[in-house]
């Protein structure tokens, strides 16, 4: 994680408003012009006006801080409570691209890859140096929404599933994982106990049978002792394939 001196201190003062994003790992994406603090386009997963106003206001302030703290081509990831804000300045120092991750565990590489894809879509638009506030929402919002869904998809990026579990261990995904882990451990312990019990029984039978036969005691018991010889060590693979499971 790259930290820009002074910039991280400013981010620490941002309000704790990333809570309540639900299962969204990438709830906010935006691009803006640095020199005059104009937000050219943004996408937010929350449709409420209060949340939109709050996030766009935060991004406007972020643009102002970036003008002082970031150089052309520079990037930084800032911790924001339980989540983060990933920022990327373009090579000309004209535009700032930003994505909010709802968890610090979200992979940094994927966040910057998303911003790169947003930058490619943005560079195809005209008049980036002079366009007004939210001028490219119509053009960029569908692409931003598509990219957030893509980079939240664990089937495309398995590491996202790990990030989701780390971010919400008590949530549905975390519960499923925990239950599966407990089930594996229980099966493992049951197998171990069964094997130990079997060994105890075998030891008792073999020890009892051998002693009676040698002492010339009860014929029936002696017969049991002799018959116990069939309990030979199991050949490899006799119980089928086995595999140690690490939980």
Produce a short descriptive summary:
The protein has helices spanning 7-12, 49-69, 108-123, 137-151, 158-167, 172-215, 219-227, and strands spanning 28-33, 38-44, 75-80, 83-89, 95-101.
Structural class: alpha+beta
Average residue-wise pLDDT: 77
Assign a percent range to the helix content: 40-55%
Q: What percentage of amino acids are in beta strands? A: 5-15%
Looking at this protein, list some descriptive labels.
247 residues, alpha+beta, disordered C terminus, 5-stranded antiparallel sheet
Describe the structure in your own words.
This protein has 247 residues and is α+β, with helices and mostly antiparallel strands. It contains 7 helices and 5 strands. α3 packs antiparallel against α4 and α6 (172-215) crosses α7 (219-227).
Topology, please?
Blueprint lengths: L6 H6 L15 E6 L4 E7 L4 H21 L5 E6 L2 E7 L5 E7 L6 H16 L13 H15 L6 H10 L4 H44 L3 H9 L20
Antiparallel strand pairs: 1-2, 1-5, 3-4, 4-5
Helix pairs in contact: 3-4, 6-7
